[in-house]
From TrEMBL:
<keyword id="KW-1133">Transmembrane helix</keyword>
<keyword id="KW-0472">Membrane</keyword>
<protein>
    <submittedName>
        <fullName>General secretion pathway protein K</fullName>
    </submittedName>
</protein>
<keyword id="KW-1003">Cell membrane</keyword>
<keyword id="KW-0653">Protein transport</keyword>
<keyword id="KW-0812">Transmembrane</keyword>
<dbReference type="GO" id="GO:0005886">
    <property type="term" value="C:plasma membrane"/>
</dbReference>
<dbReference type="GO" id="GO:0009306">
    <property type="term" value="P:protein secretion"/>
</dbReference>
<keyword id="KW-0813">Transport</keyword>
<keyword id="KW-0997">Cell inner membrane</keyword>
<dbReference type="InterPro" id="IPR005628">
    <property type="entry name" value="GspK"/>
</dbReference>
<dbReference type="Pfam" id="PF21687">
    <property type="entry name" value="T2SSK_1st"/>
</dbReference>
<dbReference type="InterPro" id="IPR049031">
    <property type="entry name" value="T2SSK_SAM-like_1st"/>
</dbReference>
<feature type="domain" description="T2SS protein K first SAM-like">
    <location>
        <begin position="109"/>
        <end position="191"/>
    </location>
</feature>
<comment type="similarity">
    <text>Belongs to the GSP K family.</text>
</comment>
<dbReference type="InterPro" id="IPR038072">
    <property type="entry name" value="GspK_central_sf"/>
</dbReference>
Length: 286
């Protein structure tokens, strides 16, 4: 004989069905969300790739203008922004001549002290001495400087190279330098100008202010007015050199469809050789 189901059993069955439907709904929503997430990820990757290629194109256009005798003199080399357009997409490019920065390998102690006076007056003399001890080939400590034994006493990783700086980032390892100080100094220095001074025609106001005795007011005036007959240029001429026009940092930024800004920079050395007109020394994103 077939047994009739009671209301309780019918209620339980209904609850099970409802729970099953809810579970299926949740799974469907999860799959849809996952699908949308994957779609967005693909879209973001595509936008990033397009922005990266556009930034590379902007750098290539600036390089073309630097290498072409017909356009080279028209390129602003002070880091001022310039806009290019490719297929309607704006690309902001900045060209900075490394001769506008202070060369860690060539700058005399007086100029190094002036540099550090602008960011850490109480440590300027010691930092300048430590930089000179890092780059020279001996183990003789300058007053306030540091040689290998001093780094070992401090428990530092690594010792002075007793050789020229290969990269600006090495400066972060010099005794007396910390992360905050390095972040302020790094934009003002280079290892590629090969000059014991700087070119006032392309130097920023912040870099010009590192020249001993040159005030921030005068530095600002020089960065705005690049006249060769300026009395200020004559007064501080012993620190000024003419750029050989070889080493440049070219930075490009592109705003993608989603509003994200992609930045890339390239440090290049111009050789002007037909088969290889330039060498890429470094590249950075961000």
């Amino acid at each position: 004989m077939t047994r009739r189901r009671g209301r309780g059993e019918d209620g339980i069955a209904l609850i099970v069905v409802l729970w099953g439907l809810a579970l299926l709904g949740a799974l469907a929503a999860g799959i849809a969300t996952h699908g949308r997430g994957e779609t967005r990820l693909v879209s973001d990757l595509r936008d990033a790739a397009e922005s990266r290629h556009m930034a590379d194109a902007g750098i290539a256009l600036a390089l073309r203008d630097l290498l072409d005798p017909r356009t080279a003199d028209d390129v602003d080399r002070t880091g001022a922004p310039r806009d290019y357009r490719i297929d309607g997409t704006p690309i902001t490019v900045q060209v900075s001549d490394e001769a506008g920065r202070i060369d860690l390998n060539e700058a005399p102690g007086e100029l190094l002290r002036g540099l550090f006076m602008t960011v850490a007056p109480d440590r300027a003399a010691n930092l300048a001495a430590a930089v000179q001890d890092w780059r020279d080939g001996d183990d003789d400590r300058r007053t306030g400087g540091a040689e290998a034994i001093d780094y070992r006493r401090l428990g530092r990783d690594g010792e002075p190279a007793n050789a020229p700086f290969q990269r600006v980032e090495e400066l972060a390892r010099v005794r007396g330098m910390d992360a905050a100080l390095f972040a302020r100094v790094a934009p003002l220095v280079t290892v590629h100008s090969r000059l014991d001074g700087l070119d006032p025609d392309v130097a920023s106001a912040a870099t010009l202010a590192a020249i001993p005795g040159l005030s921030e007011t005068v530095a600002g005036r020089l960065s705005r007015d690049r006249r060769q007959d300026s009395a200020d240029l004559v007064a501080f001429s012993r620190f000024f050199r003419h750029s050989p026009g070889r080493a440049f940092t070219i930075a490009a930024s592109v705003t993608g469809p989603g509003g994200r800004v992609f930045r890339r920079s390239a440090l290049v050395w111009l050789t002007f050789q037909p088969d290889a007109p330039y060498r890429l020394l470094a590249r950075h994103d961000g």
